[in-house]
Amino acid sequence: MRFTVVTIFPEMLAPVLTTGVVGRAIQAGTLSVHMIDPRDFTSDRHRTVDDSPYGGGPGMVMKVEPLVAAIEAAAEAAAAEAEPAGEPERPHRVLMSPAGRALTQERVRELAALAHIVLVCGRYEGVDERVVELAIDEQISIGDFVLSGGEVAAMAVIDAVARYVPGVLGEAASADEESFSEALLEYPHYTRPASFRGLDVPEVLQSGHHERIRTWRRQQALARTSARRPDLLARHLFGDEDRRLWAGLPGGDPAAGVYLALVHYPVYDRGRRVVTSAITNLDLHDIARSTATYGLAGYFVVTPVAAQRDKVARILSVWRRPEGGEGARPGDNRTQPGADNRAEALSGVEAVADVAAARAAIEARHGRPPRVVATSARAGAGALDYDTLRARLHAHPGAPVLLLLGTGWGLADELVATADDLLAPVCGRTAFNHLSVRSAAAVILDRLFGQRGS
Ligand code: 9WO
Known about the structure:
5-stranded parallel β-sheet, alpha/beta, Alpha/beta knot, binds ligand 9WO, elongated, Trp Operon Repressor, Chain A
C-alpha cells in the first residue's frame, strides 16, 4: 500500500515512519510513504505557498496553484513507478480537516483496501476552497479539536490504516480484536508483579480457568463501555451472553434503578383545567410492555381514585394468573400464546395514590429517594436533553430515578415544579405535537436505553 503526504513540513513525519510497526512495514516494503512539498510547485523566488484571504480577516490561506499541482504530482509519481503495462488506480485524495467526517475504525478498515492514498495537510488558517473542489475526494477529521496543521492527523491515519495492511501486524487477525472494532472498550490488562503498592491482579486472571477469564473480561469491557462511552454501548448489539453478563454486574444495568410513573392526577384537560383522568387498559398494557422491554425496575400507575386502583389490581390479577389456572377457560385469549409473557410484562406494575407514594416505595427498595424527572410536550427553559440524561443514567447504574409521564393534556405545572428535572419534549420536525402518552413513553425509553445498532 502507498501513502503520499502533501505537506510543507515533510520532516515532521520522519519519526513515525522509522519507528515500531509502521517503521518495520516500510522496511519490509509492505508499505511505502512518499512526501510531496507544495513549495516545489511554486515559481516565485520566495517559494510562496500562502496569501491573504479574500474578504479580509486574520491569518493567511494556502494558495490553490501549488497545492493542486502537488496533489496531481502524487498520482503522476505513482504512475511513473508502476509497471509499464499496469494502469495504476487513481489515488484517493484526502484533506485532513476538523470539518471532515470523523474517522472511525470501520472507515480505517475500508481505507486499508485502497492501493494509494494522498493525505493533504493544510497549514495557516486554512486552504483555498478550490483545492477541495478540484483535487479532494474526502475530508477526514481525527476529532473535534483544532491542530496547527494536518500533519499530526495524517500520521494518525497512516498508523491506524497500516495495521490493516496484510503483513504489517504479526497475525492477520489481531488488528480486529482490539477496542472499537466491536464498538466496546477493551477489558483491563495486567502483567507481573501480582501485587504492586497494595493493588492485586484480579484473582480470576490468576486462576487458569479460561472460561471464567473470558466471561470476566467480557463483563469488564461492557461495564467500562457503559460507564465511559454510553454512546458506543448504544451501538453495540447485545447477544444473549452480553445481556446476561451485563445484567449480572453490580449495578451494571442503567435501567436497573429507573421507574416510570403514569400520572392520572394532577393533569390538565383540553381546557388546561387540573383534573383526574381515567385509567385505560391500553396505557396500562402497552406501557408495561415498554418498561419490561427496556428493563426498567418498575411501573407505577398513579391515581388518587381508589376504585381506579382496584380496577388496575383486578386487571393485574387476571393476567398474572398462571396459564390454565383458576378462572381461565380454554379459548380465553389469556390462555393464548403470549399470555405468559404479558404476565411477565405486568409483573412490575403497581397502582399507587400519588407520586409521593411512588417515591416512598422506591426509597424503601433502594435506601434513598429517587431523582424525579418530569416530562412535558411543551418546551421548558433549562430542560434536560436526552443525551445528558442517557449519559447520567449510564454513569450511575442502579441509582433510583422516577420518570413522570402525564396522561390527558400533560402533567400539571404544580407537579412538574416538585420534580428535580424537566426532560426536553419529544419533537418531530413538524408543528404537530400530539403523541399519545404510550408513544411518548416508548420514544423516551428508546432514547434513554435503546440499542442504536442495526
Ligand atoms: C480548520 C478548520 C476549523 C474549523 C472548521 C473547518 C476547518 N478546516 C480547517 C482546516 O482545514 N485547517 C487547515 C489544517 C489549516 C489549519 C490547520 N489545519 C488543521 C487540521 N487543524 N486541525 C486539523 C485537524 C485535522 C484532522 N482532525 C482534527 C484536526
